[in-house]
Amino acid sequence: MNIKSHIPNTITVFNLLCGSIAVIFLFNGLLLGAALLVGLAAVFDFLDGFTAKLLNAKSLIGKELDSLADVISFGLVPSLFMFVLLKSEVNNEMSSFMSVIPYLALAITAFSALRLAKFNLDTRQTTSFIGLPVPANAIFIISFVMVVSTNDAPLPILNQIAANIWVQLAVIAISSYLLVSEIPMFAMKFSKGYGIKDNKVRYSFILLALISIVFLGWTGISLTIVIYILMSLKFKV
Q: What does pTM read for this prediction?
């Protein structure tokens, strides 16, 4: 086995390490640092597949390693973000029932693992996705938590809604469902070249995402994933 065959797997390991360090950051209350590490993990997640294709170094072990890394970076870490948020919301509650609620956030990890297992076996997901991709779900969950933690929403009423514990539980339930749903989602793969005609949806999404993030910050990142889901429902790519 030559050296180039190890390059994609090495990049995947960096993805896993970013997620692992993010867990430690969360234990120490460093939410922003953990969020940035997940963003870096997403970059490595893109690069490992891109590099494997570029070097013609795809392998079965690489496929499995990628899923294992994604469970940590995009499954466990967003669960812990939501756990920390829910823990702070119920911190003043003394009842045993309320103390259990934060652990419901771990449903995100469970459904992310199920989503990744299904993806590895599903031959229909070569040029598009069925169900919300795990990285996209992680980005939404983490940015949602950051919105609540920083009161980043542009309107006070939105901050109040996002801070409601029942809204947060609904976010967990909906995101878990979307991960394993049969809803077709477009992929950001330019398989037919980079022409505008064949990639109108992708370029439109990129433009809307940039505008949202620039003007709305963390709220814009959350909104970007909502836009992605709505565009996937509207257009078939």
A: 0.91
